[in-house]
Amino acid sequence: MPISMQKVRTRYAPSPTGYLHIGGAWMAFFNWLFARSQTGAFILRIEDTDRTRSTEEYERAILEDFHWLGLDWEEGPDVGGPAGPYRQTERSHLYRQYAQTLLDRGAAYHCYCTPEELEAERQRARVAKQPYRYSGRCRNLTPEQRAEFERQGRRPTIRLRIHDDGETIVVNDLVRGRVEFDPEHLDDHIIVRSDGSPLYNFANVVDDHTMAITHVIRGIEHLSNTPKQWIMYQALGWEPPQVAHLSNILGTDHKKLSKRTGDTAVRDYKRAGFLPEALLNFFALMAWYPEESREIFSVRELIERFRLKDLGKASPVFDMAKLTWMNGVYMRELLQRDPGRVVDACLEPLRHAGLLDGQVTAQTHAYIRQVVEVLGDRIKVGRDILTYGDFFFTDAVTYEPDAVKKYFSQKTAATMLAQLRDRVAKVDRLDAAAVETIIRTMASELRIESREIIHPARLALTGKTAGPGLFELTALLGRDRVVQRLDSAVEWIRRLPDSRGV
RNA sequence: GCCCCCAUCGUCUAGCCUGGCCUAGGACAUCGGCCCUUCAAGCCGGUAGCGCGGGUUCGAAUCCCGCUGGGGGCACCA
């Protein structure tokens, strides 16, 4: 195989049983980062042995999400490569071959125990409060016994033979250091099912080796699997890869990240209008600070500074507030440099809210861009265009109840807004300066503060008390929409039951 | 029940390896204030942490032991 053994090769191996999970993306990111920092290769492998739950749609979606994040791969199911195929279901011949090798070497054996018999063993252990270990009944079957089982129609599984008197297995974890395992606590576990399909721990070993993976960065749940895998590497005469185990991301409830405490799919973040570069920056900080007193790093900088040993060992809590802040930092920068991308991040949320349908024409795009410029740094995440500026996309303005009490309940509100309406209707071109003049003039004529007009006007035009400056938003809305909304507001106020209808 | 991993502000973390520079640094969040037509942003300031108990040492967040707490594993799941 023409794969250079010196070159660093990392991989991420998702199961296509759902959309790309934040935790998975996080793990993949460090594999990718390490490969890039070592000018190595990053490989994508699909672990689709769970036929009942795996689908092609999910596989496609996962690749899409990786593309969106900006993580690329040298070898994978879509691009192929020298170590292919890159889907486990297409690699059965390899598992079969190496299982036979293990059998031939006596490192593995056929086991004819049925699931029911095994469950009974497990049950006994539970009752006796003893740790469960396979009884080893099939370890030394005679040819006659085997023949008898075969006659009964039993289909055997293949088990790995672990020696009780084996030496301590040492795992040199790149982030945790040396971890020792006594084989006494290991079990002759099944590596091939009775239907001939491989189990995770075995397929993993075969795949990582045949794909010449040099470094494996994975979740802490695999640390306990590592000694089992090391035994297989040894039996096969292979050199195991370097490993690093990271703790999993936790939700705010300090439990495994779940839908309850926030979005778990990368796709959800895309839809909400997060930026991939912000997400990646945030990912990095959940395990490591490249420099003290600094939070914002480009992917380029992260690659340059990445050191496996610097990764943290504890489980980070996914802090949505910090991600949102960080996304805002990136948004503000983009607003100056590339506002079109801010617009893009707002598209999905607008569509989702039903405020945008069909193809986005050049005019629509240009309009949204104006909205984005008026909203400015209020947009920390794409969906903020809704919270601060939905009124730019619909005439159906709903007034905030608290604000109504505050600004629409005075007797003068309706007359004042009506007067403003008339003044606005008279101008030809309603730009920000014109509105400002109108309002300031009107305020001084009425001997009131400008803000006494501004607040009710904002409510009439936007339905909200928070948002962009009144003059700017009015200019974008345009004279006609402003007049029309002021009319609606006046009418609405006059219909209020407790209004004296001045 | 057994095995493994982890433990600094509410949260992410720096410091820990190579004890003293740590009256523990930064950031998010939070609370004040400034700015201001509101909000956001920005600026200024504040609150807040070495899980506990023993050692070792002149000196421990840093080294050792125990405990507690959290997480993971012990499948014909991945």
Task: Explain the overall architecture.
About 45% of the residues lie in helices and about 10% in strands. It is mainly alpha-helical and about 500 residues long. Strands 3-4-7 form a three-stranded antiparallel sheet. A two-stranded parallel ribbon has the order 1-2. The protein has a two-stranded antiparallel sheet with strand order 5-6. Helix 6 packs across helix 7, helix 16 runs antiparallel to helix 20 and helix 17 crosses helix 19.
DSSP strand tally: 9
- Main beta sheet, described? 3 strands, antiparallel
Head-to-tail CA distance between termini: 88 Å
Helix content: 40-55%
Residue-averaged pLDDT? 92
Identify the strand order in the major beta sheet.
Answer: 3-4-7
Q: From the alpha carbons, calculate the radius of gyration and give it in angstroms.
A: 32 Å
Provide the β-strand percentage band: 5-15%
Query: Given the C-alpha coordinates, what overall shape results?
Result: elongated
- State the low-pLDDT regions, or none: none
Order of helices and strands: EHEHHEHHEEEEHEHEHHHHHHHHHHHHH
Structural class of the helices, strands and pairings?
mainly alpha
Number of helices: 20
